[in-house]
Amino acid sequence: MTIEQYRAMQHTVPTAPGVYRFISAAGVILYVGKAKSLRSRLSSYFSERRDMLAKTKAMVRAAVRFEYTIVNSEQDALLLECTLIKENQPRYNVMLKDGKTYPYFCIKNEAFPRVYMTRRVIKDGSLYFGPYTALQQVYVIRDLIKQLFPLRTCPYALTSETIQRKKVKLCLEYHIKNCLGPCQGLQSREDYDEKITQIKNILKGNFGSVKQYLKQEMLRYAEELEFEKAELVRQKLLALEDYQGKSTVVSTTISDVDVFSIATDEQFAYVNFLRVSNGAVISAFTQELTKNLDDEPENLLLYAILALREKFGNKNREIIVPFEVSVPENDILITVPRIGDKKKLLEVSEKNVQYFLLQKRREQINKSVKQSSEERILRTLQKDLNMSELPMHIECFDNSNFHGSFPVSSCVVFKNAKPSKRDYRHFNVKTVEGPNDFATMEEVVYRRYRRLLEEDMGLPQLVIIDGGKGQLSAAMKSIKALGLEKKMTIVGIAKQLEEIFFPEDPIPLYIDKKSESLKLIQQARNEAHRFGITFHRNQRSKGFTVTELTQIEGIGSVTADKLLSHFKSIKKLSEAEIDKIQAVVGKAAGKKVFKYFAQKRKEK
Q1: Does 1.25.40.10 match the CATH number of domain 551-603?
Q2: CATH code of the domain made up of 257-359
C-alpha cells in the first residue's frame, strides 16, 4: 500500500482504540498491532519519517491492505492483539523463541493419578507444573516426592471394578515400599488423593501446608501408639525442611509475587521471570524473544509477561517490574519498587537477565570465530586448488585388501570442513578379483555417484582420491561415464611426498606443508584410511572364521553362518555339546563339526 492510497482513505479510519492488521497479497497477516487511536497509529506507518526501521518499511511495502477492529479500551485491544498473534503467528510480530523442550511435572488425569516427569504437554485434563530450566532441580523434587509420598507408577486403569476383582497384581514397587498397593485396595482413594493434594502444594511452593499435614500425621500415629510410623513421618518432615532450607529465601515479608526484568540487544530481547512463593524463589526462567517491529521495551515486556504467566499457569496477584506496564487484568497489582526487599528481588532478576545476555553474546562471538575459521580454511583450499566453488562438501575414497582377499573401500564425507560421520559409507567390492586397486577405485566411485544421482542428492564440490595418478585415472573413468567431470573437482593425493594430482595433468601440485588446506586434505585422507581399515579388519576376521568352518568336509558357508550366528564365536562353538550343535544344523552336520573340534582338542 502506498502513501497516496492511505491518504485517500485516511479520513475513514476511526480515532477509537483498536487492533489493526497488515495483510499481504496472498491474504496472509503480516503484522498485528494495537493502538489508542487507530487513525494516529496507522498514519505513522505512512509518514515520511527518516527514523523508521527498515523492517517496518519492508512490512508496509509487502502489505496491500489493512484491516482493523474497534474495541472499548486499550486493555481490550491488548487482549485481542495477543489472541490474534497466537492464532496467526505473523512474520513481523515479536516471537517467543523455544530453543529446547524443558521438563514438566505431570499429575495425570486418572483415578489414583501418577506423577511423573515429561517434556510433552498433552491437553487431556492432566495438571502440568513447570517448565523447569535446571534438570538437577527436577531430579531433586522428584526424589523428594518419592520419599515423602509413595505413589503408583503402573499404567493400569484402576477402576472400582478392577480393584474389586483384583485384576492387577501387586508388583515389586509395592514390596520395596515405593507404592502402598491401591490396585489391590490396600490404599483408599481418599488417602491417595490427599497425598496428591500435598504434592501439588510442593510443586506450587506451598511448603507450609505440606509441613502441617505431615505434623498432623505424626501426632495421629503417636496417639495411636504407632511410634515406628510416627518416626518415619518425622524423617519425612526433616527431609522437607532440609529441601526448603536450600531454596533461595529472599524475604520474610514478601508472600507470593512474580518478578520480571528485561534486557535487549539489536535483534533479541530477554525477559527473566522469577516465581516467588512464601518469600522464596521456587523457579526461574529466562525467555528469549525475536524482535521485529515491536521494539519498545514496554511492549516487549508486556507481551512476555502475558505469555509466561500463561505458560507457567501463574495466578499471583502482584507483579514486580522495572517500569510501568499496563496489564489488562484489573485485579493485578503492578509494583515498580524503589527501595526495600522488593527492590532487592528485582535486582536479583536483573542480574539473571544481564548474565543471560552476556552468555548469549559470548556464544555468538565463539560461533562467529568458529565459522570464520572454517570459512578461512575452505577459501584457502579453494584458492590452492583453483576451484570455482567453495568446497563446503568434500568426499574422500580409500581402498583396503589383504593380498587381494576381502577387498573393501571407504568413502568419508566432510561438510563445512568437519567430518560428517553419519554420511560415511563403506563398500564391499563386487566385480574385482585379485589385487587390483585401480579397478576397485573405478567400481566404488561409479557406485557412489550413480547412487547420488539416482536419489537426487547433492554432489560434493571436491572429491579426493587416496593414491597417485593410477587411482585418479581409474576414478575419472567412472566420473566421465556418469558425465560429472565438469560438475566436481577431483584430485588425487600421493602419500610419499603429499603430491596433489589433477586429471590429465602430469605435473603435481605441492601445497605448503604448513598450509591449513593441506592439513584438511590430509585429515580427510587419514579418516578415509582409518574408516576403511576398521571395516576391512571386521570383514577379514569374519572371513577367516567362516573359512575355518568351511574347511570341515560337508560344511558350507550357509551352515557356517548359522553356527556363528547362534554360538557367536568359534570358542563357544568348540566347547558346545553335540546335541546343542545338532539342534542348530542337524544331526549329520552337527556330528561333523563336533568331531572336528574334538580332534583339535586331542592334537593340543
Answers
A1: no
A2: 3.30.70
Residue 593 sits at the vertex; the CA angle it makes with 589 and 598, to the nearest 5 degrees, is 145
The third-level CATH classification (topology) of the domain covering 3-93 is: GIY-YIG endonuclease (3.40.1440)
What three-state secondary structure class fits 138?
helix
Q: If we measure between CA atoms, which residue out of 171, 179, 116 comes closest to residue 151? A: 179
Q: What is the number of alpha carbons within 13 Å of residue 115 lying toward its C-beta?
A: 26
C-alpha–C-alpha distance, residues 171 and 494, integer Å: 66
Strand partners for 465: 397, 492
Only one residue has cell 544421482, namely: 453
Walking along the chain (604 residues) 10 residues at a time, the average pLDDT comes out as 71 86 89 88 78 77 86 80 82 69 84 88 82 72 82 88 86 88 90 89 77 85 84 80 58 77 86 80 80 76 85 82 83 87 86 85 71 82 89 90 62 91 84 78 91 87 89 92 90 85 86 87 89 66 57 80 78 86 88 86 72
Rg (CA), the chain: 36
φ/ψ (deg, to 5) at 48: -100, 45
Q: Where in the chain is the domain with CATH 3.30.70?
A: 257-359
CATH 3.30.420.340 domain extents, the chain:
393-540
Classify strands 405-415 and 418-419 as parallel, antiparallel or unpaired.
antiparallel
Q: What is the pLDDT of residue 404?
A: 44
> What's the burial of 475, exposed, middle or buried (CB within 10 Å: 0-12/13-18/19+)?
buried
pLDDT at 397: 93
Cα 530 versus chain centre, distance: 30
Q: What is the DSSP letter of 504?
A: T
Which residue, chain included where needed, has cell 507470593?
256
Contact 31, 90 (CB under 8 A): yes
Within 10 Å of residue 12's Cβ, how many Cβ atoms? 7
At residue 328's C-alpha, the angle toward residues 325 and 333, to 5°, is 60
What is each CA distance from 493 to 450, 467, 472, 499, in whole angstroms?
A: 23, 5, 9, 6
Taking a C-beta distance cutoff of 8 angstroms, is the pair 464, 431 a contact? Answer: no
Class of the 393-540 domain? Answer: alpha beta
Long-range contacts of 374-380 (CB under 8 A, 24+ apart): 374/416, 374/417, 374/418, 376/516, 377/417, 377/516, 377/517, 377/520, 378/416, 378/417, 380/515, 380/516, 380/517
Task: State the span(s) of the chain assigned CATH 1.10.150.20.
Answer: 551-603
Q: Which residues contact 556 (CB under 8 A, 6 or more apart)?
A: 550
State how far the Cα of 465 lies from the Cα of 411, in Å rounded to an integer.
10
Q: Which conformational region is residue 456 in: left (phi greater than 0), alpha (psi within -120 to 50 degrees), or beta? A: left
199 sits in the region (left: phi over 0; alpha: psi -120 to 50; else beta) called: alpha
Q: In one letter, which amino acid is 315? A: K
DSSP-assigned letters across all residues of 212-267: HHHHHHHHHHHHTT-HHHHHHHHHHHHHHHHHHHTSEE--SS--SEEEEEEEE-SS
